[in-house]
Amino acid sequence: MQQPITGFHQDEEDHWVAELACGHNQHVRHDPPWMSRPWVTTRTGRESMLGYRLTCKKCEEGAPADRSLD
Questions:
Q1: Alpha-carbon distance 52 to 5, whole Å?
Q2: Under a CB-based contact definition with an 8 Å cutoff, are residues 21 and 54 in contact?
Q3: Strand 2-10, strand 16-20: pairing
Q4: Model pTM?
Q5: N or C, which end of the chain is more exposed by having fewer CB within 10 Å?
Q6: Distance, CA of 44 to CA of 27 (rounded, Å)
Q7: Distance CA 8, CA 16 (A)
Q8: What is the pLDDT of residue 39?
Q9: Burial of 11 (0-12, 13-18, 19+ CB in 10 A)
Q10: Across the strands, what pairs with 18?
Q11: Is 18 in contact with 30 (CB distance < 8 Å)?
């Protein structure tokens, strides 16, 4: 299920995590050659991806939200 990115935060290892509209979180690493996401390395790049839709596997699995949507 496609969900828009609503924000970002860093985890305890300083990896970037996308916050999705559904309440789930998803890591968005730039780790070439496996994952090429150079936009994640800068604030401007991350801001440009707000609203971009990612496939949320947690939604597809029916998992509870990672955070409150209040």
A1: 6
A2: no
A3: antiparallel
A4: 0.89
A5: C
A6: 18
A7: 7
A8: 95
A9: exposed
A10: 8, 26
A11: no
Which one, of 64, 51, 47, 67, lies nearest residue 5 by Cα? Answer: 51
Token duo for residue 19: 């916050």
Which of 8, 1, 3, 9 shows the shortest CA–CA distance to 21?
3
What string of pLDDT tens digits covers the 70 residues of the chain? 999 999 999 999 999 999 999 999 999 998 888 889 999 999 999 999 999 999 999 999 999 999 877 6
3-state secondary structure the chain: CEEEEEEEEECCCCCEEEEECCCCEEECCCECCCECCHHHHCHHHHHHCCCCEEECHHHHHCCCCCCCCC
